[in-house]
Design a protein that fits this description.
Layout: H1 6-14, H2 22-35, H3 37-53, E1 55-56, E2 63-64, H4 71-74, E3 79-86, H5 89-98, E4 103-107, H6 125-133, E5 141-144, H7 150-163, E6 169-172, H8 188-196
Helix pairs in contact: 1-2, 2-3
């Protein structure tokens, strides 16, 4: 039986991960078994430790493994007047890698998806509102950085409506043609957004 065979159990568990089918799971399992037993042991320890220690930051709802608030919320050098709202923890990592943002974050853990039963109650919307009325009442700008998808746009619109009377400046991340992209391969929605959000350039001196 598969339940009594550790290798079969490992393959089954690996195949439950997103983007990994049974064949890929088998390759990963046999690589670990045949090539790198030390990696398998360290991976098992890391998974166990993370499962025990990881929790949502009580302030921004991002995932962290350190006690109390996460490293970003605990950093006194962050700009506490800026608050960037993102859909998922991995979005925080992506923005941090850009080195263009120095404010705080709030993680919703998803986007509104009524057809899938995901409403404001399933997201960290209430926690966001509490922050802006409590410990983060000094925030002057909220950056809505939910993804440019149908659900992401609906989420940004919902938040904008609920924050409209808060006195906080609201902004939405720009979206358009990616660097290195070709216009002929760009979908019409992205192209329309790029044109609608065009900005003036100038200040050039004649040579």
């Amino acid at each position: 039986m598969a339940g009594t065979d550790p290798i079969a159990v490992l393959v089954k568990q690996l195949s439950r991960l997103p983007g990994i089918g049974e064949r890929t799971a088998q390759r990963l399992a046999h690589y670990l078994l045949n090539e790198n037993r030390d990696l398998m042991k360290s991976l098992a320890k890391a998974l166990e430790s993370t499962a025990e220690k990881a929790h949502e930051c009580p302030r921004c709802c991002n995932l962290t493994a350190q006690e109390g608030v996460c490293r970003i919320c605990a950093n006194p050098k962050r700009n506490t007047e800026l608050l960037c709202v993102v859909a998922r923890p991995e979005d925080v990592n992506a923005i941090e890698k850009s080195n263009e943002y120095s404010g705080l974050y709030h993680v919703l853990h998803g986007t509104l998806a009524p057809l899938s039963g995901v409403g404001p109650e399933q997201l960290r919307v209430k926690a966001l509102m509490s922050r802006l009325m409590g410990e983060d009442a000094g925030v002057s700008e909220v950056v809505l950085a939910t993804p440019p998808t149908v659900d992401g746009e609906a989420t940004a619109l919902f938040l904008a409506r609920n924050l409209d009377q808060s006195g906080v400046r609201l902004s939405r991340i720009a979206s358009g043609i990616p660097v290195g992209g070709q216009l002929q391969y760009t979908d019409k929605v992205t192209l329309a957004r790029a044109l609608a959000e065009r900005r003036e350039i100038g200040g050039f001196r004649p040579v």
